[in-house]
Each structure stands twice: as structure tokens, then as C-alpha cells.
Specification:
The protein is mainly beta and about 80 residues long. The protein has one domain. Strands 4-3-2-1-5 form a five-stranded antiparallel β-sheet, with no helix packed on it. It is globular and about 40 Å long. The N and C termini lie far apart (about 55 Å).
Length: about 80
């Protein structure tokens, strides 16, 4: 019996990622690597997305739909 090889994770806890939220790109932070537990062993991450200071969403997203992103304060500092 052969085991399927799992690739190393692209993201780690604390990393900032961007993802499609409706029709726009959004930025969130990885708070948990759930591992290869998705359909056909795809890796899932738990993401924290702050919509406003008092509104936070937490959800799971597959690795293939995430892209590396700069932290929100770093993105604002580079635009100034």
C-alpha cells in the first residue's frame, strides 16, 4: 500500500494571505493550518478576516485559493 506524499504547507500561522471575497480581493491572517483534510487531501487553513474593528469572520479556505500578502500596516506604509 502506498501513501500519497503531502507537500509542505505554503503558509504558516501568523502569515497574511489574500483571497477572493465576493468580487474583491480581501486580506486575512492564517490562525490555523488544518492540514490535508479537504477533498482529495487538499490543505485547509483557518483564516481570520477583520471587516471592521468590531466585526471579525473566521472560516476555512483551501490553500490553492490563497496568495501571500503583506500585513495591512505594511501595505499602508508602502503606499504612503
Amino acid at each position: 500500500m502506498s501513501k500519497a506524499k503531502t507537500s509542505p504547507p505554503r503558509f504558516h500561522v501568523g502569515d497574511w494571505v489574500s483571497f477572493l471575497a465576493g468580487v474583491r480581493q480581501a486580506t486575512g491572517q492564517v490562525i490555523e493550518d488544518r492540514g490535508p483534510i479537504g477533498v482529495q487531501g487538499r490543505r485547509l487553513y483557518r483564516i481570520r478576516w477583520e471587516l471592521a474593528p468590531d466585526v471579525v469572520n473566521v472560516f476555512e479556505y483551501p490553500e490553492e485559493y490563497l496568495e501571500a500578502a503583506a500585513a495591512p500596516n505594511q501595505a499602508k506604509a508602502t503606499q504612503a
